[in-house]
Amino acid sequence: MAQRGRSVQTQLAEIASRLDDLEKRLAGGIAGDEAYDTHVGADQTAPRYCCVPAEPPREFAAGISDERARAILSMGNKWVNGTPLRYYFYRSGRYGGNEAQSAVARRAFDVWKNVGIGLTFTEVATPGNAEIRIGFDHSDGSWSRIGTGVLNAGPGERTMNFGWNLDVPGPNGLDTAIHEIGHSLGFHHEHQNPNAGIVWNTQAVYDHFATTQSPPWDRGTTDFNILRKINPQSVSGSSWDPNSIMHYAFEAGLIQLPSQYQNGLRPAGGLSAGDKEVVRRFYPADGGVVSGPQLRAGESQFVNIGPGEQKDFAFLPTESRRFRFQTFGEFDTVMVLFEETGSQMTYISGDDDSGFDRNASFVVRLQEGRRYRLKIRLYYSTAAGHQSVMVW
Ligand SMILES: [Zn+2]
């Protein structure tokens, strides 16, 4: 009964909130949803900025060579290619968004998918089934966790938030959604690319973001999202791409050098040619994956791939029991197992041994008659051709 009572209360609260919103829209006389956003300052068209949560840089144990660290960081937080990513939109409560907002985010997933990549995106109805959980809390800015970092979020936590209405023209609309999804694919801010060589008017930048954003940015937030240079080893593209969707627009007076941007920098909008090249390089459409032989219990198979490459193996168990999957040899890999049902793939288990002196390994219970796919992506190897994988 308590459950039922709460549900009626929630419904009443939602109705009251909708009436309140309707009143605001009528009073404001503004078409669309802009009047909803009570957290925006007076200037509705001013650029709003993504603000990713600060995370400490990855530390490596002593004895890890620079070359090995570089190889790991360059792939860091990217998904194995072919990963079916599932996303969920909060619909009620503090994080809930309306259909118009979700529709823009869906279009943004399509923009990435239409480049022709090996990842798939599927909307699901429960947060527990989604890797990417998207909220619409307007008091919390727009942000996303980076790539596989979403897996570190607690089960009910958001991995992405939109802090303003997306159904507006310009960079605060669809491009914001494309940008945040770019983070979920493992991409960092392009204006923090050390190859950009941007020299900032530091005080002007602090002042700008402390006064134009809602909630205002403190110095730490501005440092993390703007002024900090990303580790050169983590940069996805080799050169600076000021038109990247992962690049912010900047008003005049914030950039000192390169001098042509002293009067401001505004990316062209949408995915740049560079964005498409980079996302295809990390997630080539299926042709980019080396197809390995079928795994058989107790028989090892060579892996034989280069840094950044991926090899897939099929496994069809002939009995239902627990199986151990493990790599052998000196290399850093991420190894992930999926179950294949028709064209659907479901994550079963995975392990990432990059930067550690051990091999990727996991034990799972599998069912006879079902079909599984093991994906191995290589970060780094010390000696080519001496690595293998086995299931037993
Ligand atoms: Zn961002």
General description of the model:
By secondary structure, this protein is of the alpha/beta class. It folds into 2 domains: 217 residues, Collagenase (Catalytic Domain); 103 residues, Jelly Rolls (Sandwich). It is 24% helix and 21% strand. Strands 2-1-3-5-4 form a 5-stranded mixed sheet. It has a 5-stranded mixed sheet with strand order 8-10-15-12-13. Helix 3 crosses helix 4. Bound molecules: zinc ion. Zinc ion binds next to helix 4.
What attributes does this structure have?
alpha/beta; Collagenase (Catalytic Domain); Jelly Rolls; five-stranded mixed β-sheet; 7 helices; 16 strands; binds zinc ion
Give the gist of this structure.
Strand 1, helix 3 (99-113) and strand 2 (120-123) form a beta-alpha-beta unit. The protein has 392 residues and is an alpha/beta fold.
The name of the CATH topology of the largest domain is: Collagenase (Catalytic Domain)
Mean pLDDT: 84
Q: Structural class from helices and strands? A: alpha/beta
Question: Distance N terminus to C terminus?
Answer: 51 Å
Number of domains: 2
CATH-level-2 architecture of the largest domain: 3-Layer(aba) Sandwich
Unreliably modeled segments: 1-6, 19-43
Main-sheet strand order equals: 2-1-3-5-4
Name the overall outline. Answer: globular
Radius of gyration using CA atoms only:
23 Å
Biggest β-sheet description:
5 strands, mixed
- How many helices? The count is 7
Strand content: 15-25%
